[in-house]
């Protein structure tokens, strides 16, 4: 077997390893039986109908979307401001500041969630979607900062300096020069943070009570055992995420390539 055959074989094995669980999830979501196990019986759309008709699941889906979008926007704005300040201005101890901003990425979500739970109890802040959103900002801010900071090079700085020489104020330079140049990095940070927030369970479980996110609601369903209904939920979430990535590739990132 030649080298090209080995390369293709390795590529096929890698894709099978990544996508075979997803394919199994989607396939058994169409099974007519209640357990997502072989042999396959169907196909049927029964479980998708039950998911779309379940008010608790739809409410949890809305809560997850609200928390993901809100926390990701906040983390991106704060991450951009921190990256801009540390990249464009000489501050005392800037190396330590960068380290402190990135350090939460190395901390377990469980430790972050427990710490926030203690702080909220001390401050008298109740468990809610707002508390979960704050927790997701805490874990996503370092990621957004790292992605945006890594994109701030000398070329952008020279263009910003040229804009100032032409009379643009600082706010105008940031909004009309810096942000458009860094749009791919900002969008990448936003959607990656949104994906992590969408799937996050531990912090959402610790910081919510009555209004829960979709991962917490799915966990409560799994406590009663496997079901084709949970496969249908996972399939809808996966297809929605894949559609967003595809649209971004076609209409945003694809157009920026030369």
- DSSP strand count: 0
Spans of 5+ residues with little confidence (pLDDT < 50)? none
User: Structural class, from helix and strand content?
Assistant: mainly alpha
Distance from N terminus to C terminus (CA atoms, Å) equals: 37 Å
Tell me the radius of gyration.
22 Å
- Can you tell me the overall shape? globular
- Number of DSSP helices? 12
| Nearest-integer average pLDDT | 84
SSE series: HHHHHHHHHHHH
The profile of the biggest β sheet is: none
State which percent range the strand residues make up. under 5%
* Secondary structure: helix percent: over 70%
Structural overview:
Helices cover 76% and strands 0% of the residues. The protein has 258 residues and is an all-alpha fold. The mean pLDDT is 84.
TL;DR?
By secondary structure, the protein is an all-alpha fold. Helices cover 76% and strands 0% of the residues. Its main location: membrane.
């Amino acid at each position: 077997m030649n080298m090209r055959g080995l390369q293709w074989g390795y590529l096929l094995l890698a894709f099978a390893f990544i996508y075979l669980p997803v394919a199994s999830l989607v396939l058994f979501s169409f099974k007519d039986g209640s357990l997502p196990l072989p042999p396959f019986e169907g196909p049927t759309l029964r479980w998708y109908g039950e998911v779309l008709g379940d008010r608790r699941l739809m409410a949890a889906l809305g809560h997850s979307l609200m928390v993901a979008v809100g926390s990701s926007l906040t983390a991106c704005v704060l991450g951009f401001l921190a990256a801009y300040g540390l990249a464009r201005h000489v501050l005392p101890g800037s190396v330590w500041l960068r380290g402190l901003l990135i350090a939460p990425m190395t901390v377990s979500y469980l430790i972050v969630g427990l710490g926030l739970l203690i702080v909220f109890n001390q401050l008298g802040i109740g468990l809610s979607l707002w508390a979960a959103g704050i927790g997701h900002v805490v874990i996503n801010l370092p990621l957004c900062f790292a992605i945006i900071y890594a994109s701030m090079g000398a070329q952008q700085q020279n263009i910003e300096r040229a804009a100032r020489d032409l009379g643009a104020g600082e706010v105008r330079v940031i909004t009309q020069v810096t942000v458009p140049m860094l749009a791919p990095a900002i969008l990448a940070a936003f959607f990656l943070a949104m994906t992590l927030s969408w799937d996050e369970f531990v912090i959402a479980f610790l910081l919510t009570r009555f209004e829960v996110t979709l991962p917490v609601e799915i966990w409560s369903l799994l406590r009663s055992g496997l079901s084709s209904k949970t496969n249908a939920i996972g399939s809808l979430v996966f297809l929605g995420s894949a559609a967003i990535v595809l649209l971004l590739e076609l209409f945003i990132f694809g157009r920026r390539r030369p």
